[in-house]
Amino acid sequence: MIPIPELASKTQEWPERARSLVIDSPEGYSYAAQLLTGIKALLKEIEVSCGPVVKAALDAHRAALKQRRQLEDPLLNAEKTIKTMMAEYFRNQAAKRREDHEKKLQAWLDRARAQRAAEVASLEAAGDHELAVATAAAPLAPQELDGDESVPTTTGIAVRKIYRAEVSDFAVLVRSVHEGRCPLKCLKPDMTVLNTFARAMGQTLNWPGVQVVEDVSISARASEDS
C-alpha cells in the first residue's frame, strides 16, 4: 500500500502530462495508451489506500440514515394521514360553500323574477304596455350574496391552494402542441428510450426529429507499474 502523501505527490504531475501530450502518430497514440494504463494503476492504488476508510464512513452514514428513518417514519406517516384528512375537510367545506352559494343565488333569482313578473303585470293592468315590455326586458340588478369563504385558522398551521396538472390524454396533448395550442416544452423526450433504440439500431435508426450520434469510448486496464 502506497502512503497517502506519496500518492498525492504522484497524482499532481498527471494533469500536466496530459496537457503536454500530442497525438499525431501511431507512436503518440501508443504513448497515450500507456499513460491511461498508468492512471488506472494509480486509481487502483488510491482505492486500496482510501477504499476501506471510505467504506467504513459510508457504512456508518447508512446506519445513521437507517436509524433516522426508523425514528421519522411513524411521525411522517401520521403527518401524511392528518394532512390528507385536513385537505379532505377543506375540499368538502369548499364544495359545501359553493353549493350553499348556488342555492342562495337560485333563491334570489326566483324572488327577483317573481317580483319582476308582478311589476310587469301591474304595468300591463295600468295600461302602460311599453313600460311593461321595457321592464320585462331589463336585466336583473346584480346581487351581492353573503358567503363564508374563511378557512379555519390554527396556530402553526398554514393552508394554501396548490394547483398541479395531470395528463389525461397524452395523444391529445401531443396534437395540441403540434397545432400550436400548447408550448413545445410541455413535451419532454424520453432519452432512455431513444438511447436504447439508438444502441440497438445504430445508424439504421431513421426517425423524424432524431439524429444518431456516434461517440467513441476508450477503456484502459491498470499497468503493472505506475
Short synopsis of the structure:
The chain is mostly helical. Helices cover 64% and strands 0% of the residues. The protein has a domain at 169-203.
Structural summary, described in words:
There is one protein chain. The protein has helices at residues 4-12, 14-19, 26-125, 129-137, 170-178, 191-201. It is mostly helical. It has a domain at 169-203. The longest helix has 100 residues, at 26-125. The mean pLDDT is 88.
- Per DSSP, the total helix count is 6
Uncertain segments: none
Rg: 38 Å
Helix content: 55-70%
Give helix and strand order, one letter per element, not per position.
HHHHHH
Shape by Cα distribution: elongated
Alpha-beta content class:
mainly alpha
Overall mean pLDDT = 88
Main sheet summary? none
First CA to last CA: what distance? 13 Å
The total count of strands amounts to: 0
Tell me what portion of residues adopts beta-strand conformation: under 5%
